Amino acid sequence: MEIIDYSIVVVYLVGILIIGMWFEKKASKSIDSFFLGDRSLKWWALGASGMASNIDVSGTMINVALIYALGAQGYFVEIRGGIVLIMAFMMVFMGKWNRRARVMTLAEWMVFRFGNSRQGKIARLVCAVAVLMSTIAITGYFAIGSGKFIGEFLQLPEIWGVKPDFIASVIMVSIALVYTAASGLYGVVWTDVIQGGIILLSIFVVIYISMTQYFLPETFTISTPTFDGGFISQTVAREDWVNIFPKWELNFPEESRYSIYNLFGISIFFYLAKTVIEGSGGTGGYMMQRYNAARSDRDAGLLSLFWTVLLTFRWPFTAAIAIMAIVYGNSSGNIIQDPELALPVVVDKLIPVGFKGLLIAGLMSAAMSTFVSIVNAGASYWVNDIYRSFIKPDASQKSLVNQSRLASVAVVAGGLILTLFIGSINEIWGWLTMSMGAGLIVPLIIRWYWWRLNGYGFTAGVFAGMTTAIVQGLLFPGSPEYISFLAVSVLSFTGTVIVTLLTEPTEDEVLSKFYLKTRPFGFWGKIAEQIDPESRASIKKENKRDIISGFISVPWQLTLFATAMVVVLRDWTTFIILFFILAVLSYLLYTVWYKNLDTNGE
Question: Cβ distance 28 to 401 under 8 Å?
Fold first, then answer.
């Protein structure tokens, strides 16, 4: 980088520190201020913050790598997490369901659902521990991706045997930790708003450069890593590479790490099944935190819509970077061997001076915003659900805020230690989404739709699923992702149902309160019969509208993102087809969902 590029990055870093520290006093009033922003934040700010938090460096490097290696079809691999398809469910019903509980964390929600008796308290504790474990793992994933990216530009030396990537990770997370621990969600959201603007500006610059200066040849060479640490090259036709409609099978050599996607149709099916289950089960962490902080049901819907529309621009950006990486490698003879390095190579070699500093600042923004959101949300589980609930119930607000800051530091330290044991960021992301995530998915989805589920069953399902995921990661790390997902899900489901049926149900009074306030659909007949006919009819009408909206919102989001991406691919025939489908789905979504947004929802 040149001096002007370094200057832009320095100005950015100083700026977000100033903005973050500005909110230190507001965040210090109470843990509601620290973790929920006093539930006073605007829907558009929460939506912009969510977008910035979803666009991370590690995920962007993976997305670019998948598009680079698989072509446009790589888009479908990221149904597993990178497309954030859960937003389709959060937008139409799951966001408002979460908000209606008026809790701080997913673990606290367990008391709302199962009561404050022994079963509710056990479910709360187990949920808090499980989420903290996941948070540390995800923190490590984001830290290693950030270090791998930033390390390419800082060119740090190895110090006392410590790898340069790890040193870069420490630098990044330390800066982020300063304003996160000081200003809580206030600082996270408002720095995210600024960082989101930088991210979008960077995206538009890259798309413009790619579409005006880089054109794919009719055939070209790509490279993918092998299991033995080497790399293998393949020749690809442009027509096949830009085709976004997925094939049933791919043809990567067995020695390639990307051969795990050869049964492509089966992989997509399981990615989609996993995401539908996950979306129908709600969420936790920083995503749920945004809804807990929303002011009304309407705000929950609007922030979801804004969040999703802003996320659209990630996909033409990743396609643009992949195209630039292919053209550069084939024209210069320096084929990029590791697809995960396509993003930093393009930034280093092909982005002009000045714009390079802007893009690096934008990608650092993506890393920072995701990282701080995860850390802030993760710390809340220690403070609210373990420390205040089981260790020191009479703790003062000042003491709780101090604990919040210490917990933030502990989560970061755990994540950094974990990076020492992580190799490929794609592999750790696959394990997090398809194994570790599956350990929570089953009990999380059943909690909404089956009245009989109790706190003991939830606890058993989480324990069985998380234990299986950890064993799989340690003993069978090379297992196909869909096999891991199935094994973890089946064992989790078995534990959930068996223990639920062997123990007493949750009290009817607790269930009735939950049902009337949340208004979920599913197997709630026993509880619904106990409420007045007018309320029952109102809930049924809302449920019907939400179910129809869900069937529209999922293909709408997939089509929205794909339509934007094929513009950069210059596949105009496909663009016309997708645009027509998108227009029809948008009209249906407007009619069924948007026009019925509750203006007075509490």
Answer: yes
Place of tokens 């520190």: 17
pLDDT above 50: residue 570: yes
Show the tokens assigned to 463.
Answer: 């324990």
Specify the DSSP class assigned to residue 224: E
d(CA 429, CA 436): 10
**Whole-number Cα distances in Å, 245 to 25, 72, 79, 446, 577:** 52, 8, 14, 33, 12
In a domain, 376, yes or no: yes
List the structure tokens of 123: 């479910």
CB atoms near residue 536 (< 10 Å): 16
* Coil, helix or strand at residue 252: coil
> At residue 427, does pLDDT exceed 60?
no
Q: Which domain holds residue 419?
A: 3-596
Rounded distance, CA 551 to CA 20, Å?
40
* CA nearest neighbour of 515 among 596, 450, 420: 450
List, in order, residues 6 or more apart from 179 with CB less than 8 Å away. 16, 17, 19, 20, 21, 187, 191, 372
* Phi, psi for residue 251 in degrees, rounded to 5: -130, 45
SS3 state at 478: coil
What is the full DSSP assignment across 107-118? HHHHHHHH-SSH
Residue 601 counted as domain residue: no
CATH number for position 398: 1.20.1730.10
User: Do 430 and 462 contact (CB within 8 A), yes or no?
Assistant: no
Radius of gyration of the chain, Cα coordinates, nearest whole angstrom: 23
Cβ atoms of 428 and 434 closer than 8 Å:
no
How large is the average pLDDT for residues 424-449?
70
How many whole angstroms separate alpha carbon 555 and alpha carbon 240? Answer: 23
DSSP at 256: B
| Residue 218 per-residue DSSP state | S
302, part of any domain: yes
Q: Is residue 602 part of a domain?
A: no
φ, ψ of residue 323 in degrees (nearest 5): -60, -45
Say whether pTM exceeds 0.85. no
Q: What is the pLDDT of residue 601?
A: 45
**Residues 216-254: pLDDT tens digits?**
999 999 888 888 778 888 898 999 999 998 888 888 888
Number of domains in the chain: 1
Distance CA 390, CA 398 (A): 18
